[in-house]
Amino acid sequence: MKQETCYAGKLLRVDLTTGTIGTERLNPLWARDFVGGKGLGFRYLLDVLPPHSDPLSPANAIVIFTGALAGTCVATTARTVICTRSPATGTILDSYVGGAFALQLKLAGYDGIIITGKAPNPTALLIRDERVELRDATAMWGRGIWETDAWMKEQGSDHDLVTLAIGPAGENLVPFACLTSEAYRQAGRGGAGAVFGSKNLKAVGVRGTGAVRVPDMPSFLKLYEEVLRTNLLTDANLWANSAGTPMIVGLSQGAGLLPTRGFSQGVFSEAEKINAEAIQSRKQANRACATCPLACGQLTRTASGLMEGPEYETLGMGGANCAIGDLDAVAAFNRLCDNLGLDTISTGNILGLAMLMAEEGIHDFGIHFGNVEEFLEATEAIAYRRGVGEVLSKGARYIAQTYGAEHLVMENKGLEFPAYDPRGSFGMALAYCTSDRGGCHLRAWTVANDAFAGADPFTLEGRAEMTMALQNFNSVKWTGIFCDFWAIDAVTLTRLLAAGTGQPYTEADIYQIGERIWNLGRLFNVREGFRRKDDFPPPAIFDRPLPEGPAAGKNFTREDYDAALSEYYRLRGWDEDGVPTPEKLAELGLEDLMP
Amino acid sequence: MPLKFINKLCTGCRLCELICSATHFNEFAPARARIRVTNHPLEGKSAVMACFSCPQAPCIPVCPQGAIARAGARQPLAIDLQKCDGCGGNPACVPACPYGAMYFDAVTQRALACDLCGGDPQCVKYCYPQAVRLAGTDLAE
Lengths: 595, 141
Hints:
heterodimer; A: alpha+beta; Aldehyde Ferredoxin Oxidoreductase,  A, domain 1; Aldehyde Ferredoxin Oxidoreductase Protein, subunit A, domain 2; Aldehyde Ferredoxin Oxidoreductase Protein, subunit A, domain 3; 3 domains; six-stranded mixed beta sheet; four-stranded mixed beta sheet; 39% helix; B: alpha+beta; Alpha-Beta Plaits; two-stranded antiparallel ribbon; two-stranded antiparallel sheet; 4 helices; 8 strands; 17% helix
């Protein structure tokens, strides 16, 4: 008898140009070697996407994947990854969203969806078990995401249908347009929303009524009961339940690395108005993604209504970085972004840059630090690309190059930096600039090991190895797809993945799978022309030390960084230009993908 | 002791549905769960429901096969799967339940209701926010 595993064993293929919908068997060897989530998403993307495809052309592909454990009871694994070529960076992109989309997709009988081509008209993909169809979504084009979500439930005649949808920002091809699911959860970074928009794809909705199985249910439940008690519901994770990410406002402020006033400062004088205590004073309840007891969503009462959030990144980039010391204003910004489909991180970074440029007399976009009205108007203008929003929608790199603000900008590969200033934790520079999708903190959150842990944050020593180890581990963690907020260890991860997939993974296998996936992403980026020259932080990191706070006057030189980068490449088994060597690729079983 | 639900504590995670189906059917299949969650994410609201052994039990008299019984008031339902024939796909008991707590299993073509897992309800055990409880065990609400 065939062993039951947590995989559905089937993928959905949708060609929007021809309207063709088909299914295919999940490649079992790829499943063994890349597991799920980021791994399989990257593997299939590399397979279906021709080199040098314009991210916003019909040639680009969208690979939506569940994690291997999606649909099981294991906490946080109902997350979904969207893989595509990013219109913001031109790199590979894996963008994650919580909620219940992956749960429904797996219950509908699919491990993933591969979408190619471009629909002739605004279209929605509606999946109800084996019934898969494209629906005319013209009625929703131009509408907000929340309205679209309700419309999709009506189209599917099912309240439990879960959607991934874009708003006007995605339709208007803003390169940092996001996808929203279940109102407050976003695949935020890198512009997956614009790729949807370029394909006339307004939304994907899914509802499944099938089942997910594991090789041995009684053992699986016994293992999970133990893991829950000893590994999940512990102090290392429960901060997410009690305080959630706003807790980090205090940490970053305390370390002097909270991006403030367009990254010109690291301490925000009004931080107490947007910190965890400010959120807690208005907290109404906890809200969860599917399966998750941590329930990190903080349901907050704000002037514009009850909402989940704002989360740390939004408080940092929309609050401190724009000098908005007003929780209701940040919440209003958050709601606009969620509904119009904008990434709050990139949007807050860009607005902060524009405000700083006005203050420095470089260019006045008509938006200024602390001005709530201008701040909210500009956010909306970006989504619709009207007025000042047209130029701001092109991203921080474009603005800096066009208006002469390259000495101020904070981005790597075109992805705006999030809310950890690397001048307050040097390792974050390496983490951002070696990230597969550009300036992102999630692949290697080294700040947690130094500035937030009482260790010296003003050094690059050992950071190459730390960055590499975290990147590798997160890559395999995101095959699950486990959430960043579960500080799961390698042993537990190995046991859970093995118990679900039936593969006899060892801890050593798990580490190697992570390294394999990371190298796969690098191969994609190398194929698209990314090399050493692209892995450097912007000039301000070297030339403009922070003026006050714990990180005042701290910086490192280009030579320091150059040496750390060389060390990183050497540890990775890449050449001096950042290209994986044939030996490394052979070791990881990627030799057939050698450039 | 019957089940009790505190909706304001329900975070909408659906773990109860997954655990219920895994316990009874050895698969994660919320459509076969005897407990159901309704989510309203935008409004931040959830509601959870399962058979809580209501005093009237209108499901019992409407069953044409006499397949539903219970040992006493506030005792869990016992559905005789030999007698239950699913009413040919239109079970009389499902619409008879005023709480929406009687379900139909499309796989077995039989009625589904909470059996309290024989006295140790797994949904209660796994509900970290304690939105699902055994009546009489909770603190002041």
